[in-house]
Write a structure and sequence with these properties.
The chain is mainly alpha-helical. The chain has eight helices and no strands. It has one domain: 3 helical TM bundles of succinate and fumarate reductases (Up-down Bundle).
């Protein structure tokens, strides 16, 4: 087995493990279209599992770190190849991965970091607050984060299945199936963002949430 194949298999496997968390995370994003009760209820139930001692390291943080490191190593080691020689699916997958790599640290600190250090989680109101706080930034940010995360997940699973030769791995590689899964998930995520942004559901006064108060305090706002 050559060195690049080892890196590829490590990247694919770590991505597949992280996918368990990412699917739940993105579904949680999508159900925001139904309002705060649905969003917070699913999030609370899921966190009792993936934030359990040991599981968070094994299912979330560890695989995420391995996936990011192996991805960077492969980019550095990969021979330069004209973009025209790559399919649009591969190009979009790589662009999505690079965007996620740039924003992931800030996203983790803003969500898990606040709960770990201050004991305050964003929840529905906290995320809704961000849309009102700096709308010019958070509207495109959350849309891009959700859509690139979903695309990277779907294409990554199809690649991981092929690399590891898992049963049924060719299903997601079929153009019709792939496009359908991406489209349905993207629509649900856009509706979820519209829910968090107060377009589809009433978000009340998110500035009164504990998360908003913490963010404003840390930002030095009054």
């Amino acid at each position: 087995m050559n060195t690049d194949l080892r890196w590829l298999r490590a990247q694919a496997l770590s991505g597949a493990v992280f996918a368990f968390f990412l699917v739940v995370h993105l579904v949680n994003q999508a159900v925001a279209m139904l309002g705060a009760q649905a969003y917070d209820g699913l999030q609370g139930a899921a966190r009792r599992v993936y934030q359990a001692p040991g599981l968070e390291l094994l299912l979330v943080l560890g695989p995420l770190l391995v996936h990011a490191v192996t991805g960077v190593v492969r980019v550095v080691r990969r021979p330069k190849q004209p973009a025209a020689e790559l399919s649009w699916r591969v190009r979009l997958h790589r662009y999505a991965g690079r965007f996620l790599l740039v924003v992931i640290v800030g996203h983790v600190l803003a969500t898990r970091g606040t709960s770990f250090v201050y004991g305050v989680s964003p929840q529905f109101e906290g995320v809704a607050f961000s849309f009102q706080w700096v709308p010019a930034y958070f509207w495109p940010y959350y849309l891009l984060l959700a859509l690139t995360g979903w695309y990277h997940l779907v294409h990554g699973l199809s690649t991981a299945g092929a690399v590891w030769r898992w049963p049924g791995a060719t299903l997601l590689q079929r153009p019709g199936v792939f496009r359908g899964v991406v489209a349905v998930g993207a629509l649900a995520l856009v509706l979820g963002v519209l829910g968090l942004g107060g377009v589809l559901v009433d978000v009340g006064d998110p500035r009164s949430s504990e998360y908003a108060k913490l963010v404003l305090k840390l930002a030095g706002s009054r």
